[in-house]
């Protein structure tokens, strides 16, 4: 019987072997060497975990608005083109996006990001806390064992016997609602003659598959990973990264299957959802490697939103990046780059941003430091040849000193609201040629807050500003198209 409760519910070592992949977001992952010391290997693992966690966060967020959402547009600008998928069967509807990138050594990377709870049907699945027996080597067999298809009595008895042999008192079971999402997903991915995504991955023996998702999406990603291993997929080529995901199975499921799946389970210090099922019903258990983000308690009592994870993930990433710089494993974001002798040089002039304004909210100041760094890196990645200069130097004098062809003046600012946590992120940019002629001048602002997602505001602002630059610099359009 369905029970309703009134509550809210190493990969990186293998994946990053070699050098940064062509479709990675800027800054890239770290490669490995047989000469790596234990300390170096540990730092590389920590950095790569933070890097791929941030990538998975953006992909999981893109799954909510896959066509023209801020995150989807951002990923597309860095080489990713995710396809949206929607499958409905009765009361169950699954939303996920699929994408494929190529690593620097030529090995493919497949990604499936599942959407979290976003409508009444999703919440209905979350609230169903009944469990079904887990098992089977094929989709049809697993559906018989779980009771979706008729029969399965012998298979369920065999699962009980296997559990007793392993020292358990009951068969491995998983959440009925989550399992129904997985069944529907795998029916499309494995049995549809017109959908070849997983079969293409299976055939490419050097490819890797990343499964990711937030909340319900993370639960679906976890069970999907387990099912694929049961169905013959190589567990060494499967990785799962989830965010705020509830437990998916009972103690027997954890004991029998938990150790074989490479799972990074990201939670935050104020999110109740990952512990809800086992706290309320006591017949659920979490497994996998937990990465716990610390977030302030000043927001509200519902800190499950993916936007909070995104901002914490960006902070976590830059912390790992800086630690890698100190060990000489990463290069500090360069203030000068020359990679194309036939392209113009841009002087990127960063003006003082007024962060020390009297009364500036401390949380906003901290957020601005991260967002300025993020946005400035986006500018860096736009130009093949650039040099960064900061105020109080004279921008035009610096342009002539460095023999730059263009001057791009950029100013960051934040306008806070004294009555709530909302504030405006503003980026002003002025583009001039070497003769001092102003070619473009514009300012883009977006209202944001911790709950709304500061990094999303930054993505939206820089996307608009980069689009303006591409309109004014035809050579830059040609460079990116190539």
List the helices and strands and how they pair.
Blueprint: H1 11-15, H2 38-62, H3 70-77, E1 83-89, E2 92-102, E3 108-114, H4 120-127, E4 131-133, H5 139-146, H6 153-165, E5 173-175, H7 176-191, H8 197-203, E6 208-214, H9 216-230, E7 238-243, H10 251-257, E8 263-268, H11 273-281, E9 289-293, H12 306-326, E10 336-338, E11 346-350, H13 362-382, E12 385-390, H14 395-401, E13 406-416, E14 423-433, E15 438-448, H15 454-472, H16 474-481
Parallel strand pairs: 3-6, 6-7, 7-8, 8-9, 11-12, 11-13
Antiparallel strand pairs: 1-2, 2-3, 4-5, 10-12, 13-14, 14-15
Helix pairs in contact: 2-3, 2-12, 3-15, 4-7, 5-6, 7-9, 13-15, 15-16
Explain what you see.
The protein is of the alpha/beta class. The protein folds into two domains: 11-323, Rossmann fold (3-Layer(aba) Sandwich); 333-481, Rossmann fold (3-Layer(aba) Sandwich), CATH 3.40.50. The chain has 16 helices and 15 strands. It has helices at 11-15, 38-62, 70-77, 120-127, 139-146, 153-165, 176-191, 197-203, 216-230, 251-257, 273-281, 306-326, 362-382, 395-401, 454-472, 474-481, and strands at residues 83-89, 92-102, 108-114, 131-133, 173-175, 208-214, 238-243, 263-268, 289-293, 336-338, 346-350, 385-390, 406-416, 423-433, 438-448. The strands form three sheets. The protein has a seven-stranded mixed beta sheet with strand order 1-2-3-6-7-8-9, sandwiched between helices. It has a six-stranded mixed beta sheet with strand order 10-12-11-13-14-15, sandwiched between helices. Helix 3 packs across helix 15 and helix 5 crosses helix 6. The radius of gyration is 24 Å and the shape is elongated. The chain starts with 10 loop residues before the first helix and ends with a helix. The relative contact order is 0.10. The model is unreliable at 1-22 (pLDDT under 50).
């Amino acid at each position: 019987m369905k029970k309703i409760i009134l509550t809210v519910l190493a990969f990186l070592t293998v994946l990053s072997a070699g050098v940064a992949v062509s479709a990675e977001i800027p800054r890239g992952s770290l490669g490995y060497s047989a000469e790596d010391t234990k300390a170096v290997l540990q730092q590389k693992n920590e950095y790569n975990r933070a890097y791929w966690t941030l990538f998975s966060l953006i992909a999981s967020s893109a799954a909510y608005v896959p066509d023209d959402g801020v995150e989807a547009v951002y990923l597309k600008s860095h080489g990713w083109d995710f396809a949206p998928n929607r499958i409905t069967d009765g009361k169950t509807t699954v939303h996920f996006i699929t994408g494929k990138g190529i690593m620097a050594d030529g090995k493919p990377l497949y990604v499936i990001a599942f959407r979290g709870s976003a409508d009444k049907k999703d919440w209905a699945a979350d609230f169903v806390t009944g469990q079904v027996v887990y098992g089977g080597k094929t989709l049809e067999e697993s559906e018989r064992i779980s009771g979706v298809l008729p029969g399965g009595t012998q298979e369920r008895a065999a699962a009980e016997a296997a559990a007793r042999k392993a020292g358990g008192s009951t068969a491995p079971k998983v959440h009925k609602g989550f399992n129904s999402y997985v069944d529907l997903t795998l029916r499309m991915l494995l049995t549809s003659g017109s959908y070849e995504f997983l079969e293409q991955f299976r055939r490419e023996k050097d490819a890797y598959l990343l499964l990711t998702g937030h909340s319900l999406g993370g639960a679906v990603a976890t069970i999907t990973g387990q099912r694929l291993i049961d169905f013959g997929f190589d567990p060494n080529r499967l990785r799962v990264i989830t965010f705020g995901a509830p437990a998916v199975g009972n103690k027997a499921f954890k004991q029998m299957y938990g150790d074989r799946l490479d799972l990074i389970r990201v939670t935050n210090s104020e999110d109740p959802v990952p512990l809800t099922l086992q706290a309320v019903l006591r017949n659920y258990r979490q497994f996998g490697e937990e990465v716990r983000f610390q977030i302030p308690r000043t927001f509200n009592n519902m800190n499950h939103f993916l936007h909070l994870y995104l901002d914490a993930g960006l902070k976590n990433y830059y912390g790992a990046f800086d630690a890698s710089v100190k060990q000489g494993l990463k290069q500090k974001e360069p203030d000068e780059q020359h990679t194309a002798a036939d392209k113009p040089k841009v002087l990127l002039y960063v003006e003082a941003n007024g962060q020390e304004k009297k009364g500036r909210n401390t949380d906003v100041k901290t957020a601005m430091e991260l967002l300025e760094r993020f946005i400035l890196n986006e500018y860096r990645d736009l130009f093949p040849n650039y040099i960064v200069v900061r105020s109080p130097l004279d921008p035009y004098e610096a342009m002539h000193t460095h023999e730059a062809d263009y001057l791009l003046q950029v100013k960051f600012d934040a306008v806070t609201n004294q009555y709530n946590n909302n504030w405006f992120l503003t980026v002003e940019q002025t583009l001039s040629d070497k003769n001092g002629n102003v070619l473009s001048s514009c300012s883009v602002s977006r209202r944001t807050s911790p709950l709304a997602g500061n990094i999303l505001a930054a993505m939206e602002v820089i996307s608009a500003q980069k689009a303006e630059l591409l309109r004014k610099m035809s050579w830059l359009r040609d460079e990116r198209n190539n």
